[in-house]
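Hey, I was hoping to borrow your eyes for a little while. No rush at all, and the record is pasted right below:
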Amino acid sequence: MRGSQFPNPVLILLFLLLPRDALATAKSQYMVLVPSQLYAGVPEKACVILNHLNETVTLNVNLEYGTQSRNLLTELVTDRNSFHCSPFIIPELPSFAAFITVLINGTTQHFISRKSMYITKAESLVFVQTDKPIYKPGQTVRFRIVSVDINFHPLNETFPVIYIENPKKNRIFQWQNINLQRGLTQLSFPLSVEPFLGLYKVILVKESRKIIQHSFEVKEYVLPKFEVQVKMPKTIPFLDEEFEVSVCGLYTYGKPVPGLVTINVCRKYSQYHSTCHGKHSQNICEEFSQQADNKGCFTQLVKTKVFQLRQTGYDMRIQVEATIREEATGLELTGYGSSAITNTLSKLKFTKVNSHYRPGLPFQGQILLVDDKNQPIPNQNVIASVNSFVSSFTTDEHGLANISFNTMNFTTASIVVTVTYKQNTNCFDDWWLDEVHERTQHSASLMFSPSRSYVQLELVAGTLTCGQTQEIQAQYILNEQTLKDEKELTFYYLIKARGSISKSGIHVLSIEKGNVMGAFSFSFQVEPDIAPTAQILLYTILPNGEIIADTQKLEIENCFANKVNLSFSSVQGLPASDNHLKVKATPFSLCALRAVDQSVLLMKPEAELSPQSVYKLLPEKSVVGTGYRGTPNANGEKCIHAKDIILNEMVYTPKQLLHNDDVYRIFESIGLNIFTNSKIHKTHFCQPPHRFTPVAMAYEVEVKETVRKYFPETWIWDLVDLDLSGQSELPLKIPDTITEWKASALCLSGTTGLGLSPTVSLQVFQPFFLELTLPYSVVRGEIFTLKATVSNYLSHCIQVRVQLEVSSAFLAVSEENNEKSHCVCGDRQKTVSWSVIPKSLGKVNFTATADALQSQETCGNEVTEFPTLVHKDTVIKSLIVEPEGIEKEETYNTLLCASDTGVSEKMSLRVPLNVVEGSARATYSVLGDILGSAMHNLQNLLRMPYGCGEQNMVLFVPNIYVLNYLNETQQLTEKIKSKAISYLVSGYQRQLNYKHRDGSYSTFGEYDGKQGNTWLTAFVLKSFAQAQSYIFVEKSHITDALTWLSQKQKENGCFQLSGSLLNNAIKGGVDDEVTLSAYITIALLEMPLPATHNVVRNALFCLETAWGSISETQGIHVYTKALLAYAFALAGQQARRSELLESLGREAVKEEDSMHWQRPGSPQEVKTLYQPRAPSAEVEMTSYVLLAYLTTQPTPSSEDLSVASRIVKWIIKQQNPFGGFTSTQDTVVALQALSKYGAATFTKSKKAVSVTVKSSNTFSEEFHIDDDNRLLLQEVMLPEIPEDYDTTVLGSGCVYLQTSLRYNILPKKEGKDPFTLHVDSHPKNCDGVDAHRKFQIHINISYAGERPNSNMVIVDVKMISGFIPVKPSVKKLQEQPEIQRTEVSTNHVLIYLRKLTNQALSFSFLVEQDMQVKNLKPAIVKAYDYYETDEYTIEEYSVPCSAESEQGNA
């Protein structure tokens, strides 16, 4: 026997290392498996093996936490051998750390084991689905919230708070205590028309205070007419001789663009290299050009030689810029693409591989070989080496190769497997690239077994499909001596998924004499409950008590038990045709449907809601080790106290293999705690105890949202309940858009849980259609070309007749040489043109029709066919024809109170002598409510831009007054409320754009770099506080503004001015500090803060002191007096209110039945065509006086109301046609005052009022007003101007009458202009095509008025017909410090100037021709003071180079 050759010390050492019970006889075996991390409140399982029992035993599994203990499982076991998995539920615990104790007791049998566990609450899975990932300003954001448990069953969860956060971290919308019904809810909110651009978040706060967030983007995106797509390889191998670039133009409805394609291919010189090499260091470029084919594409094979791919010093990318010029219109759009140059020509990676090696069983793995484009490389040899063993394997058609090594002679503690395809040549050269082939490596540890018995699962590659029966192969090698006389051996398997034990089973292996090595198989059903990944564990207990095991991770298809199917009744449909959407799922499911344009899914399909995205929400149970080394005898396995042995003066020290793993590691690696008396550890030396302390972990579910570049409108966003049949059918009307819609459904069932449908398509298709191209507007007398383009998307040619409907509004002359019909072949277009001279003013409709003809004529060599689905398409498009000159507006307002005998009023409509012929038009409107006009125009109260922090308030504040008024008078309807609240939400969001970090607000926010404005901050503070009654306003915005204002309060109670006054026309006559302090005091009292509040009390002291010291003088400004009167009225100081009103009464301008106040030194009103009825400041101060008269306790007296009615009559006469006034402050204060007056005098009339308006000729119109229609705007066009009209009012009650007269006059100088304005257009040299298509507008402006400087000035540049501004050049103007903001609005460019002095300011921007218009007229540039709109200057400019003549500049 060879054993005699060992030296004596080695024999002694081996004896010491042998386990004590190596030769013991079979004894009772206990084994309980429990997940090492458990969910509270969710069913978990414990798997129990009890073998070789010779008596009845009781099994107890107890949970211990703190000082308490709770039984989870109790079983009486009578069988000799048993295996089963039993469910139990962990209660919710105050602590995450706990212990589980397993006790087995019989008459003679006693086993106890205690281990620490980590217990966590099973958090719900919550996700948000928005109808779009990208929104444009002003759109409505719609989203769903879904909550399910870890088994995907719906949860009726409550969210204490849900809010929207903008990119500045401001809460802009909020919901509280939202309860999900059947696991789902839908919410929405409107974006402002000018929000912060960037990433927004929907943030959900759970009851556990955990946060869920989902992001979406808000960006300004103008949908192009077509898209340029550049297709080229992601990578180009540096040895390739050529590569392909394909450029395609596709319209938004997916059809090809005919036109010229130009491709520019470049390799740029690296900026990091020297530029000393002259032309050799320049970019290398090539250009190709060709007409697009019938698919809208041009494909070019590019030779790589010129780009020197092997040479360094250049960027490792090839970049392509492609331009398509549309055939019909000449419109050019550009697309981009790039490819990385790579010298890595191949890569290897393991797709599956054994984690351990087991001597005697083959070591297996699967590798994938891919090329530089990540494509599989088939039929190639790869070399695999382990230690000194080398083998060759060949890849299959998928680039995969299965490798295998015989491990019988492996003895090391670990092995390293290296796989190589080609060897790299390590040649170091700074100028040239070497080819690289990436190899792969994997290390595997030896699996320890004292008896050298092993079991190994064969690798399962790929993803397992739900519903299939999966067979699992296993190999084994067993120690014959260990088996003794056993005839069979039971193998146990269990499947652990989502952190819990899901399935279990056994396989009984018959052991014949000598059958100690072989293979067997078992199978299980793949079901949704084990997705997305499962761990399969196979193990057995040998007769000597040793456990052998193996585990493998399985990839499972992401599937759901609730099978959802969605289908359209027809997969193709015509625009505006009928269709049906059918949804099928588990009976009584709640289904949420969505249908969006295909481009949503094209850009980033992984961002859409999908099984993968839902499964990613599943929290992973961490694999928590139990630290067995701290308790070496936990399973009755003793550690060895190995000592040095001295022999023949030599010291022999025992050495332990540290790098091999025992079977315990198998169980630990998949998160199972094992309670057993069997052998699970390798022999180990005794070590100092190491205590294990469970560490609490937090799990947060975050929904990631990837953002896309383009998103169209959503078509379907509905909830549908399914009945017992499990299906529902929705009738639908297909939108007019020619596109492909993608629809999907999300369903929730109480029995089967969540389900997602596959995405289905609906192609909206029209065989041919017509498109009209015309400018936005022209000036009367100009001539433009109207183009009608027929697109044929049939596979064959058609004969088409295109006709333009005759109209008296224009004269159209065809440019088609009397052709009656046109040939249009498949995927082609035909454009037909007319020269059009508009004859009437206003909106002119153009109606064009394309008829497919039944014709025998051929199109070239092709026969024409008659389309079956659609043979006619009609398009109506409008154009605005503007008169020459400048538009002027006169408004005549009156409040008439009816009587039974009737009240009459005459009105004479006259226009000046220099009126532009045909430009005069007038409307007559009747309303039964004093605020009726404003209610109908809440977002259009002023015909002015709204682009700064103060102007935005006129979009926000009047909604509060209207809601308050309608509430008080019990006239508020859901429709009006909904509309007003949506405006409040939008205005609130927009106002936050102008907030500073310190809590203040200014005209342009932090953009202008200035400090906050005291006036505006007080205005916003009051408005936000009042808006809280109707919308969510984040408290911090109110407290921040109040804190900032209180810091501006001086010791005497007055407020220090920060920023400038909103309107410098109200300065003078008194220290601005008093005016400012009165304004702020009013704002604080209107919030409302009590008069006893510290800041308010001190502010009132300031006002009292100021009034006391100047009340005897006449120097105080009327504006300041009006503010003081209202402030004291709000504070309840009636004596001072009366004193001020008496003083104001002496200064009032009193007319027949009205009264008002004007600025000192203000000239008497002279009605001219260019002046508004009253300056803004005078409307504002008169409105403050009206508020003072109406603010008294308990209610205004009859005398107060009498005076108030006279003031109201004057204020009403100043209203513009939209219910607003001249500017921001006067509109806001006047509407507040009118609403307060309306509420104070409101009475319901029992009798209707009739209004009759008649001309001196035949025109007559009658209106009826009663309580039901008092908010209805009734309007009629007055047919004749000039003319005299009579109005008669009969009945009971007051009516609000308004006549709006508009006309144009030719600009001419009248008196001194407040601004010096010069407008020039360049270039003067008209050579070249671009000189006729593009030109610069140069503007030079300064202030020439009576004040030191102007207020904010708006420069409004109207575009010449057919021209549009080049937006980047307009945006660039904002880089000038004096220019605060720019806007492009339809055919106008608006430039905001902070203020002007007598120093000239110059700027210019670029415009380009969008459509050709002949006989071009000059366009107007108007500069005006924002607050004093009667201060304005007008200039004209012309195109420097027009087609028909070389015109000079204005």
Remarks:
- The first strand starts at residue 29 and ends at 35.
- The radius of gyration is 42 Å.
- Residues 487 and 512 are 7 Å apart (CA to CA).
